[in-house]
């Protein structure tokens, strides 16, 4: 983990004596804590990781997480009382006053706690450095994401086995989650989206009791975690009674995705990738303005792991970034189509990590 700690400090715009990553209580857990410590399991509520500019790291952990902590290469300090935790943190930081914290991941109560136990403490934001470090994945991270993508892809291809008229959205959402965990996922990456018919026009639809009809499309957005790392895939299935409009929407979205994927390579601005897909969709008059979200986002320990493909994003792509590419068209009162895959930026282009079928002939509801 020393390489990760060094990478974080190399991204800092302002020097500091140490970086402190502190979890709150679930769900207020900072993914950067697990990144810096290299921990695959355990919650580590209210535990602290202290990173030093020379690459050293110290994990101050409760007895509850002692076994899980042993998987980290950090120095481990175990506490059983509040005072023991206070003393351990103060001792490690006794020569530190300028402390980097993750503004995106630390709670207000945690910052107040640190101010209380450490005299003359000054906080600076290490959040941007953490974000930039995490965007470039190492080989271990890539393999975990690759495994999560393989599981999600397999389940995506199996959806036609269980998708039939009369099934409810929440039945399919539950089935997808079950199938991913059955073949190796530790959990879903996020609440599975299952949207039938008109509900597919709502990008973040929550599954309900609506039953699939012959004229309905079925949109499924889901992913899983392997050793904390996420996958994220979307497939939209054609109705039994497939209209010309659905075919046109689907082929437009699929072409937009192919164009965007072809554009991806190191040195390209993220906004330019979004533009390729958006311009293709907008070139067809009846679909202009119907892509109502960004083209994609970073993927890793969080399902939104920093960075995006959007009109305002100015990130320059680098090798070993992992992103989603998910163009969509949404028509209120009719439905929507989104096709999403996960990609790894490579030396000369990108590798698509999710391999579920997506040609129109392969995604028809039986």
From TrEMBL:
Signal peptide: none annotated. Coiled coil: none annotated. It comes from the Archaea. The keyword Electron transport does not apply. GO terms for molecular function: hydrolase activity; metal ion binding. Keywords: Hydrolase, Metal-binding. InterPro entries: Creatin/AminoP/Spt16_N, Creatinase/aminopeptidase-like, Creatinase_N, Pept_M24, Peptidase_M24B, Peptidase_M24B_aminopep-P_CS. Residues 4-136 form the Creatinase N-terminal domain. The keyword Ligase does not apply. SUPFAM superfamilies: Creatinase/aminopeptidase (SSF55920), Creatinase/prolidase N-terminal domain (SSF53092). Pfam families: Creatinase_N (PF01321), Peptidase_M24 (PF00557). Residues 143-347 form the Peptidase M24 domain. Belongs to the peptidase M24B family. This is Peptidase M24. It comes from Methanomassiliicoccus intestinalis (strain Issoire-Mx1).
């Amino acid at each position: 983990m020393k390489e990760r700690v060094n990478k974080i400090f190399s991204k800092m715009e302002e020097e500091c004596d140490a970086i402190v990553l502190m979890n709150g209580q679930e769900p207020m857990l900072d993914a950067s804590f697990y990144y810096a410590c290299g921990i695959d399991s355990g919650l580590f509520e209210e535990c602290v990781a202290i990173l030093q500019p020379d690459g050293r790291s110290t994990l101050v952990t409760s007895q509850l997480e002692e076994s899980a902590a042993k998987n980290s290469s950090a120095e481990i300090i175990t506490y059983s009382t509040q005072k023991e935790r206070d003393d351990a943190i103060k001792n490690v930081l006794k020569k530190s006053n300028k402390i980097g914290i993750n503004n995106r991941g630390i709670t207000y109560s945690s910052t107040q706690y640190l101010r209380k136990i450490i005299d003359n403490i000054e906080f600076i934001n290490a959040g941007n450095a953490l974000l930039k470090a995490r965007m470039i994945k190492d080989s271990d991270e890539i393999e975990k994401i690759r495994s999560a993508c393989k599981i999600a892809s397999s389940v995506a291809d199996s959806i036609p086995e269980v998708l039939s008229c009369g099934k409810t959205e929440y039945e399919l959402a539950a089935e997808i989650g079950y199938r991913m965990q059955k073949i190796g996922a530790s959990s879903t990456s996020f609440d599975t989206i299952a949207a039938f018919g008109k509900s597919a026009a709502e990008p973040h639809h929550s599954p309900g009791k609506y039953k699939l009809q012959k004229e309905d499309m079925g949109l499924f957005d889901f992913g899983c975690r392997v050793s904390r790392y996420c996958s994220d895939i979307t497939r939209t299935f054609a109705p039994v009674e497939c209209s010309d409009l659905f075919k046109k929407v689907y082929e437009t979205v699929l072409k937009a995705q192919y164009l965007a994927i072809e554009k991806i390579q190191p040195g390209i601005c993220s906004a330019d990738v979004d533009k390729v897909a958006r311009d293709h969709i907008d070139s067809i008059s009846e679909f202009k303005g119907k892509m109502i979200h960004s083209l994609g986002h970073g993927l890793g320990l969080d399902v939104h792991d920093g960075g995006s493909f959007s009109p305002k994003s100015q990130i320059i792509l680098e090798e070993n970034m992992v992103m989603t590419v998910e163009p969509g068209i949404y028509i209120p009162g009719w439905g929507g189509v989104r096709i999403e895959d996960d990609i790894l930026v490579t030396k000369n282009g990108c590798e698509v990590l999710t391999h579920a079928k997506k040609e129109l002939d392969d995604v028809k509801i039986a």
